[in-house]
């Protein structure tokens, strides 16, 4: 995968001023902060890149060198490795916004008994065929959702009894120092609740929830594409208070043998014999809904495209249909009989000089070369 530039990491243009860069940094740092993405290695990596990018772009000298020579130019001055102190003041401010009182007792926490151990919304993947994506369908799916354990009321502790977490002393955060900065992260033992189970619940083994199997039928709209998500309201995980989240289905569409999709347009390659391309012909070709008539122009070229408006895929949001594009793939015989060769020679001779276009190029080049030696 191609490495992102510092500007791409912060999602700003190369001519962005300092205020724009600072604003983008604060937004991205809050989005990918480890405390908001516990256990997400990609978010953790992105957070490091965001800080590295801001440390460079917020320093005029480093930014100038980076713009001219890239990361390699910064290596000699310690750039690109996070040695500059630029950006840490902003990071501290972001911590204060995120934790409402950083440095003064930590952020306010919910009652541990009320905190959910898992997101209420959930995601699953579904693979469907090209035909199902184009025309829509109904699919029966079986999945497992989380439900708060009734025996421990979702706490994970026997009889629902929790005690103060000994790792963070009830703070929900553990702190570490790096130079002159103090960083915080969610306690790995209590996961930010400040409380832990002295004895685990036997029914859920301390998880605080149980998994329940469910089968539902979903209507897949026509025009769905790979990467599209469908929300099924009220079919996600169930929390302690009985509130249920939503189920999100992410689709993966299997490719078709003949049709190639690009957004709502569909491409199909049509084999055409060379004589059909030369003289122009009328062909019957397949479409998504049946057959179409393709009228070849005289002298049709290889890879020439013919577009059929509105014969593509219905937009999933109802914004009309795409097009079907037929791409000509000219086929030539691999062997010729004596009779066929004779017929082709006669045909070629009937065109006269038109059948030997290369001779015109040859004469032109020879005349030019003669002028070189005059």
Automatic annotation (TrEMBL):
<keyword id="KW-0235">DNA replication</keyword>
<feature type="zinc finger region" description="CR-type">
    <location>
        <begin position="136"/>
        <end position="213"/>
    </location>
</feature>
<feature type="domain" description="CR-type">
    <location>
        <begin position="136"/>
        <end position="213"/>
    </location>
</feature>
<feature type="binding site">
    <location>
        <position position="190"/>
    </location>
    <ligand>
        <name>Zn(2+) 2</name>
    </ligand>
</feature>
<dbReference type="GO" id="GO:0051082">
    <property type="term" value="F:unfolded protein binding"/>
</dbReference>
<feature type="domain" description="J">
    <location>
        <begin position="5"/>
        <end position="70"/>
    </location>
</feature>
<dbReference type="GO" id="GO:0008270">
    <property type="term" value="F:zinc ion binding"/>
</dbReference>
<feature type="binding site">
    <location>
        <position position="149"/>
    </location>
    <ligand>
        <name>Zn(2+) 1</name>
    </ligand>
</feature>
<feature type="repeat" description="CXXCXGXG motif">
    <location>
        <begin position="187"/>
        <end position="194"/>
    </location>
</feature>
<keyword id="KW-0862">Zinc</keyword>
<keyword id="KW-0479">Metal-binding</keyword>
<dbReference type="InterPro" id="IPR012724">
    <property type="entry name" value="DnaJ"/>
</dbReference>
<dbReference type="GO" id="GO:0005524">
    <property type="term" value="F:ATP binding"/>
</dbReference>
<keyword id="KW-0863">Zinc-finger</keyword>
<feature type="binding site">
    <location>
        <position position="152"/>
    </location>
    <ligand>
        <name>Zn(2+) 1</name>
    </ligand>
</feature>
<dbReference type="InterPro" id="IPR036410">
    <property type="entry name" value="HSP_DnaJ_Cys-rich_dom_sf"/>
</dbReference>
<dbReference type="Pfam" id="PF01556">
    <property type="entry name" value="DnaJ_C"/>
</dbReference>
<comment type="similarity">
    <text>Belongs to the DnaJ family.</text>
</comment>
<dbReference type="GO" id="GO:0006260">
    <property type="term" value="P:DNA replication"/>
</dbReference>
<keyword id="KW-0677">Repeat</keyword>
<comment type="subunit">
    <text>Homodimer.</text>
</comment>
<feature type="repeat" description="CXXCXGXG motif">
    <location>
        <begin position="165"/>
        <end position="172"/>
    </location>
</feature>
<feature type="binding site">
    <location>
        <position position="165"/>
    </location>
    <ligand>
        <name>Zn(2+) 2</name>
    </ligand>
</feature>
<feature type="binding site">
    <location>
        <position position="168"/>
    </location>
    <ligand>
        <name>Zn(2+) 2</name>
    </ligand>
</feature>
<feature type="repeat" description="CXXCXGXG motif">
    <location>
        <begin position="201"/>
        <end position="208"/>
    </location>
</feature>
<dbReference type="Pfam" id="PF00226">
    <property type="entry name" value="DnaJ"/>
</dbReference>
<feature type="binding site">
    <location>
        <position position="204"/>
    </location>
    <ligand>
        <name>Zn(2+) 1</name>
    </ligand>
</feature>
<keyword id="KW-0346">Stress response</keyword>
<dbReference type="InterPro" id="IPR036869">
    <property type="entry name" value="J_dom_sf"/>
</dbReference>
<dbReference type="GO" id="GO:0009408">
    <property type="term" value="P:response to heat"/>
</dbReference>
<dbReference type="InterPro" id="IPR018253">
    <property type="entry name" value="DnaJ_domain_CS"/>
</dbReference>
<dbReference type="InterPro" id="IPR001623">
    <property type="entry name" value="DnaJ_domain"/>
</dbReference>
<dbReference type="GO" id="GO:0005737">
    <property type="term" value="C:cytoplasm"/>
</dbReference>
<comment type="function">
    <text>Participates actively in the response to hyperosmotic and heat shock by preventing the aggregation of stress-denatured proteins and by disaggregating proteins, also in an autonomous, DnaK-independent fashion. Unfolded proteins bind initially to DnaJ; upon interaction with the DnaJ-bound protein, DnaK hydrolyzes its bound ATP, resulting in the formation of a stable complex. GrpE releases ADP from DnaK; ATP binding to DnaK triggers the release of the substrate protein, thus completing the reaction cycle.</text>
</comment>
<feature type="repeat" description="CXXCXGXG motif">
    <location>
        <begin position="149"/>
        <end position="156"/>
    </location>
</feature>
<dbReference type="GO" id="GO:0042026">
    <property type="term" value="P:protein refolding"/>
</dbReference>
<feature type="binding site">
    <location>
        <position position="187"/>
    </location>
    <ligand>
        <name>Zn(2+) 2</name>
    </ligand>
</feature>
<keyword id="KW-0143">Chaperone</keyword>
<protein>
    <recommendedName>
        <fullName>Chaperone protein DnaJ</fullName>
    </recommendedName>
</protein>
<feature type="binding site">
    <location>
        <position position="201"/>
    </location>
    <ligand>
        <name>Zn(2+) 1</name>
    </ligand>
</feature>
<dbReference type="InterPro" id="IPR008971">
    <property type="entry name" value="HSP40/DnaJ_pept-bd"/>
</dbReference>
<dbReference type="Pfam" id="PF00684">
    <property type="entry name" value="DnaJ_CXXCXGXG"/>
</dbReference>
